[in-house]
Amino acid sequence: MARYDLSETEWRLIEPLLPNKPRGVARVDDRRVLNGIFYVLRTGSPWRDLPERYGPYTTVYNRFNRWAKQGVWLKVFEALAAKSPGSLHLIDSSIVRAHQHAAGGKKGARITPSAVLVED
Fold first, then answer.
1. What is the mean pLDDT of the chain?
2. Is 30 part of a structural domain of the chain?
3. Fewer C-beta neighbours within 10 Å, C or N terminus of the chain?
4. Residue 15 within any structural domain of the chain
């Protein structure tokens, strides 16, 4: 099992949530595809650089998109969050560094309120 692969417990939770419409051609193993999706999402590598052990990168990418459009990822997230609510972690903006040009404004620019009070 590779570093980013699903454990048996995780797989048992996710497997029933995946759509399984039999087609004419035999499907690539869903678990292998999921492991490939998680590999790309965790490493940030391009789809084309997906290791061969996960199958064709086009299959992994297409299944990721198809499942996103069908709302499968939301169901998976909700199931995992319900099973382990203590494992949810949020990223706070104070710990994530922004690029130096992220603000886009001039340094020392004065912030003006949207409504200016006028005296009579």
1. 78
2. yes
3. C
4. yes
